[in-house]
């Protein structure tokens, strides 16, 4: 890769990382081609990108951006997972894969202006998704209305049961 290709790659990565809602840094040592392919497939399915990048290029890409704090953890066989759409998806997919395969280790990450350590990324991965939170809120909102409807219907149901018992008893 010549210098101009490297500069182009760095500028593309800088743009993607700055626009990302969440970035997860992981060390991947000894992953087979099929394992990396499966991980990339899972990442794409969640709307997340997974990129293996030389540390020097990654450090240049984050230099002068809010993600500059990631430079300290960009050492060793590093891979980046990031998403511009979902703030939790990269952490969820990476943590799920890391729990099954010990050759991928979560090192840290970035979320909403904060640099996270491995525990922070793991905690982020355990959060419910936006759709799950919406469904829980809707359930909480609908519960009182459902209970009121059942209570309003109950007296009529009791009268109908009494009349039915009285009618079938003769």
Automatic annotation (TrEMBL):
Pfam families: Ribosomal_L10 (PF00466). One of its GO terms (molecular function) is large ribosomal subunit rRNA binding. The keyword Transmembrane helix does not apply. GO terms for biological process: translation. One of its GO terms (cellular component) is large ribosomal subunit. Keywords: Ribonucleoprotein, Ribosomal protein, RNA-binding, rRNA-binding. Signal peptide: none annotated. InterPro entries: Ribosomal_uL10, Ribosomal_uL10-like_sf, Ribosomal_uL10_bac, Ribosomal_uL10_bac_type, Ribosomal_uL10_CS_bac. Belongs to the universal ribosomal protein uL10 family. Part of the ribosomal stalk of the 50S ribosomal subunit. The N-terminus interacts with L11 and the large rRNA to form the base of the stalk. The C-terminus forms an elongated spine to which L12 dimers bind in a sequential fashion forming a multimeric L10(L12)X complex. Forms part of the ribosomal stalk, playing a central role in the interaction of the ribosome with GTP-bound translation factors. This is Large ribosomal subunit protein uL10. It comes from Candidatus Odyssella acanthamoebae. The lineage of its organism: Bacteria, Pseudomonadati, Pseudomonadota, Alphaproteobacteria, Holosporales.
């Amino acid at each position: 890769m010549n210098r101009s290709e490297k500069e182009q790659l760095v500028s593309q990565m800088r743009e993607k990382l700055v626009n990302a809602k969440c970035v997860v840094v992981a060390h991947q040592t000894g992953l087979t081609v099929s394992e990396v392919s499966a991980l990339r497939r899972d990442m794409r399915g969640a709307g997340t990108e997974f990129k293996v990048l030389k540390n020097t290029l990654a450090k240049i890409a984050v230099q002068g951006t809010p993600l500059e704090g990631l430079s300290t953890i960009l050492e060793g066989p590093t891979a980046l997972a990031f998403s511009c759409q979902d703030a939790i998806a990269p952490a969820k997919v990476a943590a799920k894969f890391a729990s099954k395969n010990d050759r991928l280790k979560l090192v840290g990450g970035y979320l909403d202006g904060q640099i996270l350590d491995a525990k922070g990324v793991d905690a982020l991965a355990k959060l419910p998704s936006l759709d799950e939170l919406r469904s829980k809120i809707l359930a909480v909102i609908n519960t009182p209305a459902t209970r009121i409807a059942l209570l309003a219907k109950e007296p009529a149901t009791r009268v109908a049961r009494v009349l039915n018992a009285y009618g079938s008893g003769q």
